[in-house]
Fold ABC transporter ATP-binding protein.
Amino acid sequence: MPALEIDDLRITYRGSRGVIPAVRGISLSLEPGDTLGLAGESGCGKSTVAAAALRLLPPGTEVSGRIMLGGEDILTMSFGRLRAVRWAGASIVFQGAMHSLNPVHRIARQVAEPIVLHEGVSTDAAEKRAIELMAQVGLPAWRARSYPHELSGGQRQRVMIAMALACSPQLIIADEATTALDVMIQAQVLALLEGLVADRNIALIMISHDLSVLAETCARLAVMYAGKLVEEGPSHEVFGHARHPYAQALSAAFPTVGDPAERRNPHGLAGDPPDPAALPTGCSFHPRCPVVMDTCASTQVELRHARSDWQAACLRVEPMAPAQPAMLAEEKHD
């Protein structure tokens, strides 16, 4: 059974500007132990997908499709069942750990809180478990009595990871969990997540705008643009040889270290992401696309298989030919 299965997820916000489609028909599937990187520019809908996976979207948001976690649909759960699933079935690590932690409570108490709520153990027993979890993420026991402001940014992110692991979930979603950290601390946190996924067979979704980080951490990479998936496939191949022009532009935005030519002539992508309330016709990327064709403005392109394990939503991608039927075995004669 997949740890997470998202089927035709559509999310619409309503505001003073009318209807705003934030997510437009996304489908994803993760088995236990799978790692998926979700990339894209700000406003593409990747954090909305993360919030929807635990039903954390604001009231009034319209959601359709299915989000199956351990065989149950998150979108149709009662609130009581939903509270039981959060932390125990799936947990999330947000980008701003300082804003996610309570500034007036000590670290051990905050890590222990989901254990007390979901497992019904005493506070003392939960705090003892919290100290063990902190050790697993590389924090010394004496930090259990610290307040969030007494920790560095990397230490606070480790606390959030310890909280995410507190009730042994099937799925962890890391939403820009390393964006605000320096390079050395970022590498430590990423190595920690990789190790925990391998040791505990947890499914992991990492959300970032940094394709290089996702390619090194995750086995598969999905790229979003204007609320839709435009490419999904093996991480290193998508990062190095993307099929969709937008994914190619994201990959090209990272210079090759030691290459003077790239340092003097950096690559970029002209224009801005589209307004979700007024999306272009046809392919949403066509106004910015460097290889646009006349038909792109009028043709809505869905993901097509460039290979059995690789999809891209572009007219220039030749869809994979259907598999040929196996040759029938010759009948044996008596």
